[in-house]
């Protein structure tokens, strides 16, 4: 008889093998349907979870699930950062900064009012729910814009916002949680200092490790790790997240900035040979695809239908306000004042529709459950509703809307 650890290892290998096989099938199907693969992966994951067939049952709070979510999100963020161009970011950085900070507060404020009225909960609980889902999700948006080629400045604004606003969303969530659990009033100065610290150390960590990695794989004389660039990318992604996390900064921001530096290493005077660059690009794309398969199938498998059904009507109403009112108001209020960028109405309408919720809000909801936050089950229920509705409705219509608004890069 095999030891329990061996049986567990076999079970995990079986589940992982199924995820890879079904994930590949989902990717092919998504390509045929011309929709982002994250939506198909999420649906398949939901069908495989305990709520339907029970084929996959990996708990949301398990170490294995957290490992997949953290590393997978980090690598997808690295891929997204590497695809951005500094020339474009220099044009739209004001909009990104305002959306990632003030924009999160606007979204949370509007959504909290909807939650207060539609769910009948105390306002502090409504604000805690709104703060949890206020940030957009880079693990969802980065692959969408990899597959649907949108005009550069729009795609890069939305991707960058999603990478930078997770720190704002997390800080706001835990600041509100402190009040909800009897920790006193929010100190605006404390929240701002915490945000600046998390953002600053995250950016600094990403810059240092990004420059170091670029030096080792692409320096004219000292590029002795050029042939091992894919391995360096793996090490540096983990290093950037853990280093920033150790400094109590945003690990996701550090990884994203690391990707921007590596993707724009030519700006710093570093150039890889075409063959080695192609090898690195292929590795990054393949690894990011694998991470999407694992993240979204596992995320779908953890949807608690019984819990969602309890708050279904009010939850759907809150998410509808969240998608159709809070996001458009946020985008227009944050982007219109940026006269330097001169956003068109079509561009702002498109950005209003691309605000998918996913891994980061899901992780925050899980943390609130573990910490015994007030009405944590209700918050988790509405969070998963937001994840399902925004990905299944918004992600699948991204290409169609971009085509209608003449924002496809091919056009």
Summarize the structure.
76% of the residues lie in helices and 0% in strands. The chain is mainly alpha-helical.
Description:
This protein has one domain: Up-down Bundle (Na+/H+ antiporter like fold). The radius of gyration is 21 Å and the shape is globular. The chain contains 18 helices and no strands. The N and C termini lie far apart (62 Å). α6 runs parallel beside α17 and α7 runs antiparallel to α8. It has helices at 4-33, 37-48, 63-83, 86-100, 102-119, 123-133, 138-147, 152-180, 188-218, 229-246, 251-263, 274-301, 305-310, 312-335, 345-353, 359-370, 376-394, 398-404. The chain is 76% helix and 0% strand. With 411 residues, it is an all-alpha fold.
Map the helices and strands:
Elements (H helix, E strand, L loop, with lengths): L3 H30 L3 H12 L14 H21 L2 H15 L1 H18 L3 H11 L4 H10 L4 H29 L7 H31 L10 H18 L4 H13 L10 H28 L3 H6 L1 H24 L9 H9 L5 H12 L5 H19 L3 H7 L7
Keywords:
411 residues, Na+/H+ antiporter like fold, mainly alpha, globular, 76% helix
């Amino acid at each position: 008889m095999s030891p329990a650890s061996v049986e567990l290892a076999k079970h995990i290998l079986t589940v992982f093998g199924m995820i890879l096989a079904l994930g590949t099938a989902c990717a092919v199907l998504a390509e045929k349907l011309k929709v982002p693969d994250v939506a198909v992966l999420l649906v398949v994951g939901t069908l495989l979870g305990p709520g339907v067939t029970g084929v996959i049952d990996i708990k949301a709070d398990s170490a294995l699930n957290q490992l997949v979510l953290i590393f997978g999100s980090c690598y997808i963020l690295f891929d997204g950062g590497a695809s951005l161009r500094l020339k474009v970011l220099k044009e739209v950085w004001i909009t990104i900064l305002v959306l990632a900070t003030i924009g999160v507060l606007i979204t949370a404020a509007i959504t909290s009012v909807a939650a207060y009225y539609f769910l009948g909960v105390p306002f502090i609980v409504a604000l805690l729910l709104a703060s949890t889902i206020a940030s957009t999700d880079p693990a969802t948006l980065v692959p969408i814009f990899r597959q649907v080629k949108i005009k550069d400045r729009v795609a890069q604004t939305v991707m960058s916002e999603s990478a930078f606003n997770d720190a704002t969303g997390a800080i706001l969530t835990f600041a509100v949680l402190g009040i909800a659990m009897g920790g006193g009033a929010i100190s605006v100065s404390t929240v701002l200092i915490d945000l600046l610290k998390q953002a600053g150390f995250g950016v600094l960590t990403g810059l240092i490790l990004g420059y170091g990695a670029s030096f080792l794989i692409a320096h004219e004389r000292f590029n002795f790790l050029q042939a091992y660039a894919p391995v360096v990318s793996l090490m540096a992604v983990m290093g950037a997240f853990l280093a920033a996390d150790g400094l109590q900064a945003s690990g996701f921001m550090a990884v994203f900035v690391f990707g921007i530096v590596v993707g724009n290493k030519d700006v710093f005077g570093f150039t890889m040979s075409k063959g080695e660059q192609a090898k690195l690009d292929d590795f990054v794309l393949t690894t990011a695809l694998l991470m999407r398969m694992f993240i979204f199938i596992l995320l779908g498998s953890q949807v608690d239908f019984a819990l969602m059904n309890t708050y279904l009507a009010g939850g759907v109403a809150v998410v509808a306000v969240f998608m159709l009112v809070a996001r458009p108001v946020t985008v227009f209020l944050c982007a219109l004042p940026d006269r330097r960028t001169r956003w068109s109405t079509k561009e702002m309408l498109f950005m209003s529709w691309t605000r998918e919720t996913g891994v980061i809000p899901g992780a925050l909801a899980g943390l609130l459950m573990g910490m015994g936050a007030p009405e944590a089950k209700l918050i988790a229920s509405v969070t998963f509703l937001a994840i399902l509705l925004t990905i299944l409705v918004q992600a699948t219509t991204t290409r169609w809307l971009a085509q209608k608004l003449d924002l496809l890069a091919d056009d």
